[in-house]
Amino acid sequence: MVLQIEMVACLSSPLRGYPNDKPTTSKSLPNGTQKNGTGEKSAAPPPATRAAHDPVHVEDPLSQDVIPQSIIGRILRLIRHRARWFRRQFTGEEDPDEEKNSAPPPPPVLNRDPKTDPNFRIWGFRFRPEWVIDPSSNAYYRWLAILSIAIIYNIVIILPRTVFDELQRDYMVVWFVFDYISDFMYLVDMVVHVLTGHLEQGLLVREPRKLIRAYVKSFTSKMDLASILPTDLAFIYTGLAAPYPIVRVNRVLRIGRLSEFTYRTETRTNFPNAFRIGNLILTIIVIIHLNGCVYYAISKGIGLASDAWVYPGAAYWRINKLPEIQPHMNGLTHSTTLPPVENCCGSNNSTNITKPVTNDDDPLIQKYVWSFYWSTLTLTTIGEVPGPVREGEYVFVIIDFLIGVLIFATIVGNVGSMISNMNASRVEFQNRMDGVKQYMEFRKVGKELENRVIKWFDYLWSNKQSLDEESVLSSLPDKLKAEIAMHVHLDTLKRVSIFQDVEPGLLVELVLKLKLQVFSPGDYICRKGDIGKEMYIVKRGRLSVVADDGVTIFVTLSDGSVFGEISILNIVGNKTGNRRTANVRSIGYSDLFCLSKDDLWDALTEYPEAKKKLIERGRQILMKDGLLDEEAVREAEKRQQNVVDKVDRLEVDVDNVQTRFARLLAEYSSSQQKLKQRITKLEDNLQRRRIRAKTLPASEVDISSRPPLMHQKSVDDQTEQSDDQRMAR
Q1: Could you count the other beta carbons within 10 Å of the beta carbon of residue 299?
Q2: How far lies 175's CA from each of 96, 240, 241, 593, in Å?
Q3: Are residues 318 and 450 in the same domain?
């Protein structure tokens, strides 16, 4: 309607412009004005200067071109300008006549106000940023799941409805309801696709114009539009009976969304291998189903039971009809007498029953099951089906065999890789265990120790402790790796008293350095007198602190207990000298987190304040237990103070030496520059004397030139002395 109004107005008034449209980059301006060299508007030449035969030129603000006088020219010009406007609004493409800016796109503007920003207004309506759908959100994934039902419906049902007449005829109302529900879901999906944001410079785009342009320019929009074309209008001319439901085959073009749902499900599930196997099996079943439908369609086109290859009908595979009447089964019935059947009263009744042998009247389930059975045998290359007779049958069977070979290769390859992936961790663990067993056998290790090692491996596998955390998390960035480690180990690390209320950054560094160790029953974690190089946190299990005899138990440690934290701090004045003061032995299988001294001090180099706090807390614990030598602490502090004073004096001396060296270097540079200037001046004087000697005759040089030369020499010497004095000043 708007286009018709504009067309009528354009035809009625040749001077009509479009003030709402944007002008192009032409140098000419409306109303006959032009830009001069300074950028100012200059008046157009007077009408008197124009030739009488020149056409009337009217500048159009939209394209700044000449408005044609003919009706057809105006219509074509209006269509061209409208198409240019729509292309600029919906796709963002510029006019090919305009100069394109090659500069990189500007950075996105953050914290825009949707109420005032014109980018959030589309067709006069205000667009809310919260309407934009994040493709990684759960809502988007749920919508894909719902849409996949409609896509699978169209893939699975359209072809059987086309092939089997009774399926389309008996359930026509149901199919129409499902058809238009799926069409409505397709339309809603187009809206969802437009509202789905994408990342631009790391930020989710929420401007409606950018979203519309990105969708219109994508290949997906073409496929979506093709899949929703109203091909059902063909029913007006063809009717609703089979095989005309095939006109809805364009609905299958939306299969890309089904693939997206499959990919997102595979990334979200915790059992990806099981999902891949299930997806592969369902895909094969659908292919067999569709191939069976094609087989029945070819059989119906050739003629049911017309030869040995096509669908034989119920008379052959359900009623076991005699071979001599098989070529005449189409459109016939056969009367046969069943053997006597003994009823419940014990009497025999011989009944003459007419059995149908008309293949078109076979039940739908019989037709479909036979077709599915034939397709399964063919695609799996099992065979055992009648061979083809006609040329078309041969072609179809050849294609089926090729597809079957590909399917068989896909099944073998995918299932093999999936099973190997499922057992990859088990195979790797078993290889490690076999390597250790072979080593123990080669080194003639005792049977008792060998059994302990095997039991230790069994404990690791049964309790899922065989996973190498470092190799598994190595592909993650440090930030995510730290967050996972904090989620797993932070609560455990906070149980240590010396690490309470320390800087969060230090805790992040330490949780990344915790390592899990598993001890077997009877293993000693540490012995009395050993140098402490690690601290331990009990994750699971029970430990006992025993005497030297190994029988007396002083205390039992359980989950959450900590020991060995003081020995890794290197506290001066510790009477134990960083050595273990007790024997700790594992009662059963125990899982302990270990933090080494080297890892702790590497982390403390970046946190000096936390280092002071940890050492102070360790001293307090030692003082409480009476294990701190205060005299040694004071002597160490004095030595530390003396060292600090010496370092300060050395710093002062180094500063003085650097100052003196800088002064000497400056003097050396100045004297060297002066020496170079003097040498240059002497070279110039020597050059002048040589030139003068060459220009004078020899007699004058011998007789009359000696006094002047002596005089000139004295003058040059005075000049050099004066120059030296001036340079010195």
Answers
A1: 25
A2: 49, 11, 12, 63
A3: no
Indicate if 197 and 152 belong to the same structural domain: yes
Mark whether 607 and 498 lie in a shared domain: yes
Is 42 a member of any domain?
no
Domains in the chain, number? 7
Cβ(59)–Cβ(28) below 8 Å: yes
Cβ contact 468:425 at 8 Å: no
pTM attached to this predicted model: 0.57
Per-residue pLDDT band at 508 (split at 50, 70, 90): confident
- Residue-range definition of the domain harbouring residue 162: 123-268
Q: Are residues 285 and 188 in the same domain?
A: no
Q: Taking a C-beta distance cutoff of 8 angstroms, is the pair 247, 232 a contact?
A: yes
Q: Residue 662 in 3-state DSSP? A: helix
Comparing 265-269, 339-343, 636-640, which segment has the lowest mean pLDDT?
339-343
Q: Give the CA distances from residue 97 to residues 29, 67, 90, 487, in Å, rounded to whole numbers and listed in that order.
A: 16, 18, 19, 59
- Residue 16 is predicted with a pLDDT of 41
- Residue 482 burial by CB count (10 A; 0-12/13-18/19+): exposed, middle or buried? middle
302-328 confidence digits (pLDDT tens): 888 888 888 886 544 444 443 443 443
Q: Is 570 contained in some domain?
A: yes
- 521 within 8 A of 575, measured Cβ to Cβ: no
- Cα separation of 616 and 619, whole Å? 5
